[in-house]
Amino acid sequence: MGLSGRERRILAEIEQGLERDDPELARRVAAINKIESDGIDYPRAYSDRLRVWALTHVWIIFAVAGVVIVLLLLAVLTT
Predict the structure, then answer these.
(1) CB of 15 closer than 8 Å to CB of 26
(2) Which end of the chain, N or C, is more open, meaning fewer C-beta atoms within 10 Å of its C-beta?
(3) Is the pLDDT of residue 26 over 80?
(4) Which residues cross the membrane (predicted)?
């Protein structure tokens, strides 16, 4: 989704103010923008790792819940 003309103008004003007030930060932002425009998809790689991490934790929770249920059933059946 593209920016409107007004939004692009506001963004340009912010960028100009940043370059004027903090040239070092502006240089770093420009470097980040260059990396992103070169087609390196770091956010997607991060989101893929996050998804795997979340799914792993969900399976661990299910496994622990299963063990707890089995232990509770054993405790009830042996008393």
Answers:
(1) yes
(2) N
(3) yes
(4) 52-77
